[in-house]
Amino acid sequence: MPTPPPTGPLVTRGTLATDLRALGVEPGEILLVHSSLSSLGWVCGGAVAVVRGLLDALGPAGTLVVPTQSGDLSDPSHWENPPVPEAWWETIRAAMPAYDPLVTPSRGVGVIPETVRTWPGARRSAHPQTSFAALGPRAAEVTEGHARDCRLGERSPLARLEALGARVLLLGAGYDTCTSFHLAEYRIPAPRVGTGRPGPAGWEVVTEVSIDSDRFDELGHDFERDRPVVRAKVGAADARLFPVADAVAYAQRWLAVHRSRAEEV
Hints:
Layout: E1 10-11, H1 13-23, E2 30-35, E3 42-43, H2 46-58, E4 63-67, H3 89-95, H4 111-117, E5 123-124, E6 132-135, H5 139-143, H6 157-163, E7 167-171, H7 180-185, E8 192-199, E9 202-209, H8 216-226, E10 230-234, E11 237-243, H9 244-258
Parallel strand pairs: 1-3, 2-4, 2-7
Antiparallel strand pairs: 4-6, 5-6, 7-11, 8-9, 10-11
Helix pairs in contact: 1-2, 2-4
């Protein structure tokens, strides 16, 4: 049986840029994008066309930022999808390559961030598990200084984006992907956990604030109800646009009331 033709819509670099401008993306701004390529429709040129469309909408003075997480650089004893035999754990810890911002691939964030990561001129931050990559004139300013013991807190690109007045674009992605909410977790009482990973001198355990996206969808629903969030379609995708600072401030209040973790400290 022949494969049925795609149902569309047909999306191109040009239609993406037009839709993004209609949504409210402004030339020259700094934009943190969480994305789902499959949600957009049939994209002529795939992830490359999406990145070019985003850059077209931002213009030469704008800066595109994406999460390029590599959570697989972690302790195999915590792996669940899939788990590995306990007999392998020590060998994995000893043999796992350390993080290299130039070659370590992103994982679990989609093909668009991985395309940005490998784009000519891209800059990438230094955290081995929760890095960000950026393109544009303020890319270095956003990505530099990401402390190796601060995943998504005050010494991460998120705090820099907040200070620079950046906005978040959820492009077919849900609020469960909104990393800005994690910055709020660093500003309320939260437990600290030891995180194992490969380091420059071998296996290391670093103590960091515990982060958890549990109930972020619910948080996002309330945020959108109470705060001005711009919504529109980009291709076939539901898109949302809002300031990083608004998301962090709202999440800090909401999490303290609805998902307090102070008792875990």
